[in-house]
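Bench notes, afternoon.
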Amino acid sequence: MTDSKPKGYAVELYFDQKMEDEFFSFRESLYKLGIDPVLGLLGDRPHVSLAVFGEIDIDQIIKITTAFAPQCKQLAAQLDAFGAFPTTSNVIYLLPVPSQPLLELHRKFHELLQKEKILSSHYYLPGQWVPHCTLEFELPDDQLNLAFQLCKKHFSPIRGTFSTIGVIAFRPIAYLAEFPLPK
């Protein structure tokens, strides 16, 4: 019997449909040029995670996110660069411009978590957070190197808006809740 318990949970910002389509189109072009899909096989959506948690009362996170979403506004989103984290996970990502409104939204969400005495992964705390939109991960070294070369040659900025906020369980990915951000 397999353990179907999620490995973790996350609160994520999602892009408008046009931006999401452009992201998927770019990622598919990398696959056609030789990158083997890993994340692309998991049913993910392009996103920027605001907070990531291990074992937690997910109903409380959904409640906090439900109350938080109406206090926000849709934000301009600009994926203008690509990069990687210096870990063995070989994560390659697109980097959103860390605008003041994005950083403020992130800070306010973590203030709500702090009031409830909830702590996310330290990588996602204000002052330590590197906002990113994962393109692929768990790539062998040769695939990571190829992905970098392909991004260098073919990547163009992708622009749009952050239009919704959602809560997921991951590994496997399950979308638990999603809320529109007011215009």
